[in-house]
Amino acid sequence: MTASGVRVRIAPSPTGEPHVGTAYIALFNYLFAKKNGGEFILRIEDTDATRSTPEFEQKVLDALKWCGLEWKEGPDIGGPYGPYRQSDRKDIYTPYGQELLDKGHAFRCFCTPERLEKMREEQRAASKAPKYDGLCLKYSAEEVSAKMAAGESSVIRMKIPTEGSCDFADGVYGDVSIPWDSVDMQVLIKGDGMPTYHMANVIDDHLMRITHVARGEEWLASVPKHILLYRYFGWEAPVFMHLSLMRNADKSKLSKRKNPTSISYYSALGYIPEALMNFLGLFFVQIAEGEELLDMDELSEKFDPENLSKAGAVFDIQKLDWLNGRWIREKLSEDEFQARVLDWAMENDRLKAGLRLSQSRISKLGELPELAGFLLKSDLGLDPSAFAKIKSPPEEILEILNTVQPDLEKILEWNVETIEAELRAIADRMGKKLKVIVAPLFVAISGSSRSLPLFDSMAILGRSVVRQRLKLASQAVASLVGPKN
Question: Which residue numbers delimit the Glutamyl/glutaminyl-tRNA synthetase class Ib catalytic domain (predicted)?
Answer without folding.
Answer: 6-322
